[in-house]
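ugh ok so i messed up the first submission bc i forgot one of the chains. this is the corrected input, ALL of the components this time, i swear. 516 residues overall. if the numbers dont match what u have on ur side tell me asap before i send this to the collaborators (the ones from the other lab, u know who)
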Amino acid sequence: MRNLKLTICYDGTDFHGWQRQPGLPSVQEALESAFEQITGERPNATASGRTDAGVHALGQVVNLYSASRLRPDVLLRGINAKLPRSVRVLEAEDVPQAFHATLDARSKRYRYVIDNAPIPDPFRRRYCWHVGYKLDEARMHRAAQALRGRHDFRSFETEWPNRTSSVRTIFEIEARRDGSVVLIEVEADGFLYNMVRSITGTLVLIGGGRPPEAFAAEALAAQSRKDAGPTAPPQGLFLQYVRYDRTPAPIPLDEEGR
Amino acid sequence: MRNLKLTICYDGTDFHGWQRQPGLPSVQEALESAFEQITGERPNATASGRTDAGVHALGQVVNLYSASRLRPDVLLRGINAKLPRSVRVLEAEDVPQAFHATLDARSKRYRYVIDNAPIPDPFRRRYCWHVGYKLDEARMHRAAQALRGRHDFRSFETEWPNRTSSVRTIFEIEARRDGSVVLIEVEADGFLYNMVRSITGTLVLIGGGRPPEAFAAEALAAQSRKDAGPTAPPQGLFLQYVRYDRTPAPIPLDEEGR
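and heres the new structure output, hopefully the right one now
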């Protein structure tokens, strides 16, 4: 059996998330079904992590084992021919037997897209959250820096207590404006359930000007979900990429050297 | 009765075009229904021109008569609150009684968007035509210049003979690349049925390298739809804007002074 690594993108609008669920459309089901139509094998695809219903991916990474002898580029074209147009395989390559898309991931980067125009753009409605009042992205960016580094992020986790730890490391977090769009990007060694969406909800409150910039730091310190902002809706969230470098990205220090 | 001019944008994906049709969703029906919910009046909205099923608009212009005394900005917000998210009113203003969105239009500009990446982008699939082989946009642009000026465009009209003339004036036509996207833009004093889509189908043939650049000029001269290229699909087409200037745009001459 060979171990295949697939990099895929998908429009999450019409899926109930990555993970296979009986009777519901999922990206995993779509991918495994397309693979089966090409190879005759029903694989079990392992992703870097689940994405929720309505969440998109620009560079999700998946691995699966197969006895197929088709070349990776032939598999890529074949699978793409069978997939719905909302999912595409971008890259396919053979990787060592031990490679595991979930366990070997060193960092993942998510992007949250906010349409900050007064009138929401119909063409972006499936791919952003519309916030009609003007956001102060510089304020959001400064506030967000309190979340960098290694912390217990249970204040930004929807289902706490979870089975394991809520400690994660954010390598980079930024908020910036591109015209009428405000982008929030977070790169971390892992993410809790709804973590980026609750960070976004918190930063949008701060960007609206009411709570002080310290609200993000205070929410983190409170160790309680109710002390942070609301959970932003799923359709603005994109999994950008997953890194499998042997050496994880360094943890940047902020100005105070924390 | 006041005469209101509305500039609207819409994602045409879920509509059977601009024009009201019994039992089918249309942009006109959506707009008139939203207006009625705000004012209690059922207007008859007149657009600069129909757009077909699946075609989008960034700046369609509509006028309608109303006895409502609401301020234009209040009407705009009210209508937007009632419209489906796929349609937005961008501007609302009072105009002279005589203003007619169709008859007074001096020029309209359409954009056709082609996704020219090897692997089609799932996020663009509702808003472009995917052409998987590399297009030569410079060749397309040069070939397109033969269509500039005043001509009988029946070779690029789906339903000829029509009731009136097939003579139109193209003020500007261009093909250009923006990364993996190839854009075709056409500004004219009016458009025949499927004109931009059949011009696009013709230019894409030329961009693929098989017919000579002169194929566009020959198709125009042939005065027969079967001598031009195929009709490109609707989802790549956007009505960009409509001009109502008193003085129409000058007709550019090509190098030969035609």
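quick check: The interface with chain A takes residues 9-11, 56, 80, 85-90, 119-123, 125, 127 of chain B (CB under 8 Å). that seems consistent at least. The CA atoms of residues 122 and 172 of chain B lie 31 Å apart.
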